[in-house]
Design goal:
The protein contains 12 helices and 12 strands. The protein has helices spanning 3-25, 51-60, 79-88, 109-121, 155-163, 180-193, 209-218, 239-242, 258-266, 280-284, 286-297, 302-317; strands at residues 38-45, 63-73, 76-77, 93-97, 99-100, 126-131, 133-135, 147-149, 171-174, 199-201, 222-225, 271-272.
Length: 319
């Protein structure tokens, strides 16, 4: 064996214990996956989507119901597809008002009119994501401002929420915590002005546990999905914003962080499992996302797992 071969052999030998150690310590959580039925509290799509195949995949993964809304973005408009799917699968799909990417400053008058008409008719059971603060995503469209932004203190948000009074139509308010000092006071005011309106905070705003506790402790009318909290980051295009995002609920081995476990148990009655399947890649990974969440839920007490996995969303969205 020449000198180079001996060096390579020694290097490989020195790495083997490290590799073995990782293999031994970073395995799946030492629990059986949660086996209960699931309610996917948030999913969305445009027309580039095989809806029937996706529904079959979700059912096969043990998802009993799904809250689904359309994405409307430039030439991609999923409204007709989602409406057809909801009509064909009323036992499975809870139909939400569509998500628009191009509103700025305030909600459009036409949007408010159409959402209210759908809510009154019973077509829309909830209002899909309103992109109040939506930072540019890596690999997505980059805007001059670096984010899509609607000010929740402007008149049409108040007009919409006031008109929904008494209809039990939850409203998804999407805002991300990277500019906490600017945005939290706005939503603190909004949630406080409409205490009878249920709001859903998608992905828990990518918050830390401290920020989550601040929002949910202050407002009992705010619920949150845990979608996309099984992975690191919010995929923000701006690295400075990405650094401000809170950690995922699990470590690299899939084990619940102790602080997230405490937060989840504290707010178990207002947190919901969701996949936020939206683009073809995430819909293609749907079954794997569900499997990861079953391992996460299995690390909670059975009553908390049932509440987050199914019961809370069933209670929120209704029959």
């Amino acid at each position: 064996m020449n000198c180079g071969s001996r060096w390579l052999s020694a290097l490989i030998g020195s790495l083997l214990p490290v590799t073995a150690s990782v293999a031994q310590t970073c395995t799946r959580p030492p629990v059986a996956p949660y086996a209960g039925q699931l309610f996917d509290a948030m999913a969305q799509t445009d027309q580039s989507f095989d809806g029937e195949a996706a529904i079959a995949t979700a059912r096969a993964a043990g998802v009993a119901r799904i809250a689904l809304f359309a994405r409307v973005h430039h030439s991609r408009d999923g409204r007709a597809l989602v409406s057809r799917l909801a009509a064909a699968h009323p036992d499975f799909i809870v139909h939400g008002a569509p998500k628009f990417f191009d509103m700025r400053g305030d909600l459009d008058n036409s949007y408010v009119r159409d959402v209210l008409a759908g809510a009154v008719s019973g077509q829309y059971k909830f209002v899909g994501e309103l992109l109040y603060t939506h930072g540019d995503k890596a690999g997505g469209e980059i805007t001059t401002a670096g984010e899509r932004s609607i000010d929740p203190t402007q008149p049409n948000t108040h007009r919409l929420i006031a008109a929904l009074h008494g209809r039990h139509v939850p409203v998804m308010t999407h805002w991300e915590i990277y500019d906490w000092g600017r945005d939290w006071p706005r939503f603190d005011r909004l949630y406080g002005e409409f205490p009878d309106q249920v709001f859903i905070w998608p992905h828990a705003g990518f918050s830390s546990t401290e920020q989550l506790a601040t929002v949910l402790a202050a407002h009992g009318n705010v619920w949150a999905t845990l979608s996309r909290r099984e992975r690191v980051g919010a995929n923000l295009a701006d690295p400075d914003k990405e650094e401000l995002v809170g950690p995922p609920v699990v470590d690299d081995c899939g084990i619940l962080h102790p602080d997230w476990r405490m937060a989840i148990l504290r707010f178990r009655d207002r947190l919901m499992f969701a996949t936020v399947a939206h683009k073809p890649k995430r819909w293609g990974n749907y079954a794997a996302i569900v499997r990861r969440w079953r391992l996460i839920l299995a690390q909670l007490p059975p009553d908390a797992a049932r509440a987050i996995g199914f019961d809370n969303a069933a209670r929120l969205y209704g029959p």
